[in-house]
Amino acid sequence: MENKIFNQSNPQEVDVKVILYHFLSKWYLFVLGVLLALVIAKVYLRYQENIYTVSSTMQLKSYAGASHTLGGLELFQPTNNITDEIQIIKSFDIISKVIDKLNFDVSYYHEGDVRIVELYKTGPISVVLDSSSFQLAGVPFYITVLGGNKYKIDASFGQASIVDINSNTVEGTARGQHISKVLKFGEPFTMENLRFTVYLKDPYYKQSEGKIFFVVNKHDLLANQYKNKLNISPLNKESSILRLSISGPLVQKNIDFLNMVTDVYIQHGLEEKNAIATNTINFIDEQLGKISDSLKRTEKDIQKFQSKFSYKVSDQGLESAVDKLNNLENQKADMVMKTEYYQYVLDYIHTNKNMKEIVAPSSIGIEDAILSGLVNDLIKLKSERALLTQNTSSKNAYIEDLDKKIKITTATLYENVHNILKVSDIPIKSINKRIAQIESSLSGMPEKDRAWMDIQRKFNLNDHLYNFLLEKRAEAAITKASTKPDHEVVEKATWLNAFQIAPQTSFIYNIAILLGLLVPLALIFAWDFLNDKIRSREDLLKRTTIPVLGVVGHKQITGNLVIAEKPKSGIAEAFRSIRINLSYLLTDAKSKLIVISSSVSGEGKTFFSINLANIIAISDKRTLLIGADLRKPKIYDDFRITNANGLSSYLAKKCGIQDIINKTQIANLDIIASGPIPPNPAELLGSKRMEELIEDLKEWYDYIIIDTPPIGLVADGFYLMKYSDVNIYMVRHKYTRYKMLEKINTLFEEEKVKNMGIVINDLNFSDARYYGYNNTYGYGYYNSYGYYEEEKAKKSIFGKITKKTKV
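Above: the chain's sequence. Below: its structure in token form.
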């Protein structure tokens, strides 16, 4: 007969509180996980190198003032493209100059047991490279400080680059060598492709743990490394202020680098601006040198002429004609000079010379805004391309765009100058014609006057050109002297704007705490997933349709006589609940035969058999407990009776029935021990004599409980199940595996075993809430567990915190 109390086809769902309680019961794993993760994080941080970012700011701007009116300054107008300026700052040329000025040729290191730390201005030694010798780059030279101002140098390498520190070029490759030598500090170390001097900065320095070594750097490689590490960006989209930053473990080294970058870049801008003024001054000086010689010669000719002839012009008409000729000659000289400049520009274009060296048009009096603008544009474009090609490939899209602009600007400049040259001959021819007319009108003058006129014309022409060039030179000099930087530093790099970015201590500790919680959580989930043992009511209901009669908790005493010793305990109440549930399975039979079995040993058959017999006996029912596990006798020991005669003795016809029945200290409870282990237990249990024994015993007892061998190991128990009124199958919490249920499920589904019920044994109280056992299925003793004796024990603080509430 089926009863609703055993209908468990709809398992109770486990809510969030249940899951939470399950994990709280493993609180020690989370505490251990967090502590271990924090220790690992601390050790990790202990041996990690701190990385800092350092920054400075610089404003890009141009100065306005009176100097803009001076000749040649139109070529000095700065670019407004911030992106271009960023590329210029990060150019290899700028960074290479920075590395040269900072003297980063040698790097110093301290090698510890775990990591290597670079030293900057704090190391005990300094190394001075001999610039007259090649050096070996990339080789670690280990220095051991000895007594008496001495040191030992050691180095080994398979291959090293030979570098020239003057030209910053690689001159070859050195093959494997081993160096070991003792020298005095300050004494030059010399060998092939290597010459330097080591100095001890601190005379009281003593070699501590670890090793000190230095490395000579490849200049180009070092410049590329710093170029790649340097970050530059505007403060915002509309700002002309750039933020320069670099990250690394050495704050002071990065501070020095950033400040030198801004200094070199500003100086580079000044040099760019001053280059044209300097070239103009040099050009004018060269012309002045030529004209100065001519001027001196004409002065001497005038002095000789006057001293020889005591000549003085008396004809006012002649003097007026000479003045006209002088004016025309001066105009012609100016035009010829401009024509020569135009040809000079064409030569620059044809020969593809460096446009930085070109002379400004205004320096020789050419006030042509279009020409000056084209020259200025071409200078800027070619300068920008020269810097960018040091950073990127010429196939870069931006450089290709620059090449197109240079080509267009060059063509426009060439066409402009070529057109000017075409029309420049017209005014010169006109002036030549007027000069010829005046000279023709003076052809009849005396020879002395004509000679004086020629000398005077040459002097005036040279004097005019000389004064003109002196004026232009003065303008160029004033322009150069008044040049100001287009940019200025807003905020220098200092320790105040250095911030640690790695390792992020708080972040790592937070991650450690998170992992310390997640790893135990994952392990618990994995364990639950991989564990194939019965851990919950849901596990059992998913794998069997056999009704559950009840559940027995974990016993708190060492022996099996729990009911006798603790009649008011929670376990005693569990057995009372099972006794009640059994009444639904037991019908009108005069005597109730209950067979108890399990899959394997250790699942609590004997414990359950003893206490079930006990709880039935104390209800004033005549009860007999039979130990039918002939292979592994146990029951007799708990009741302290002899096992000399028992079931095996009777079945083997060695004694009578009265000889095997033993009285116990429990009223209404008798016991038949297993007896000596026979050679054929299965045959004995399946014999006719066993059937007759059961029939006889039913006449004498109200309940007969038989403890059988595990049916998962031997077939002994099957012989007894056919006689039983109720068959109880024991499942032990966190012990019985899923596969062990397959055999009993088959017997139940094929109806080879009648009135089958399951009892869950050894449930751990701490897991009861998580696994969802409650009063719905007859496991209700947990809900009122505080009523029973074992609950009187003092709870721990954590037990009070995690005190169970009803699910």
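The CA atoms of residues 588 and 725 lie 10 Å apart.
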